[in-house]
TrEMBL record:
Residues 21-51 are annotated as: Disordered. Keywords: Hydrolase, Signal. It comes from the Bacteria. It holds the Pfam family Sortase. This is Class F sortase. NCBIfam families: class_F_sortase. Residues 1-18 form the signal peptide.
Length: 210
């Protein structure tokens, strides 16, 4: 279950030279700089590509993320909350890794594990999730956990949505199976390089071992 704290969810300013902010899980309210407006209702996430029999894994933090279809093989850092109550994001630097929001389940536990990454990293160029929007239903995602287990997920759907309409409940809301959410920026980049108009969200579900 996502903690009831004042978070938003928008991975704002993915290419900005300053530290970007990311919104997060549903809460009673959110206000102040960077706060998101109420999220629009989102359609249920389809799971047609995923067998229903995947058993949940023991809690173990993610240490590496592999997405063969788009050439991703990156360490995974842990992310908490920034001082303003938004979700922290990986640093704006060369080879910045993906980051797991530690307020979410670990990948393979029941519920939505949330991993964030940059599409671009300012002066350093491309981010680890540059091609996240190219993913399609059925694509595989492998998360290596600290206990040595590799959790393999299949993509259910990919969504590009305006940051002001971020589907908070679909991303952070409770689900009855082990799920994964990958988030980055998308859409049009601001002329001054300060950010992007949209977010790209990948929804995936755990596959049975073997």
């Amino acid at each position: 279950m996502v903690p009831a704290v004042a978070l938003l969810i928008a991975l704002a300013g993915c290419a900005a030279p300053a530290t970007p902010s990311v919104s997060a899980p549903p809460s009673a309210s959110a206000s102040g700089p960077g706060s998101a407006t109420a999220a629009a209702p989102a359609a249920p996430t389809p799971r047609a590509t995923v067998p229903p029999a995947a058993s949940a894994l023991a809690r173990s933090v993610p240490v590496r993320l592999k997405i063969p279809g788009i050439g991703v093989d990156t360490p995974v850092m842990q992310l908490g909350l920034a001082a303003d109550g938004t979700v922290a994001v990986p640093p704006i630097e060369a080879h910045a890794p993906a980051g797991w929001y530690r307020g979410s389940p670990t990948p393979g536990q029941v519920g939505p594990a949330v991993i964030l990454g940059h599409v671009t990293v300012g002066q350093f160029g491309d981010g680890v999730f540059l091609h996240l929007d190219r993913m399609r239903a059925g694509d595989r995602i492998v998360v290596v956990l600290e206990d040595g287990v590799s959790a393999t997920f299949a993509v259910d759907s990919v969504q590009t949505v305006a940051k002001s309409q971020f589907p908070t409940s679909s991303v952070y809301g409770n689900v009855d199976h082990p799920a994964l959410r990958l988030i980055t920026c998308g859409g049009v980049r601001a002329a001054d390089g300060s950010g992007y108009t949209d977010n790209v969200v990948v929804y995936a579900s755990l596959l049975p071992a073997g």
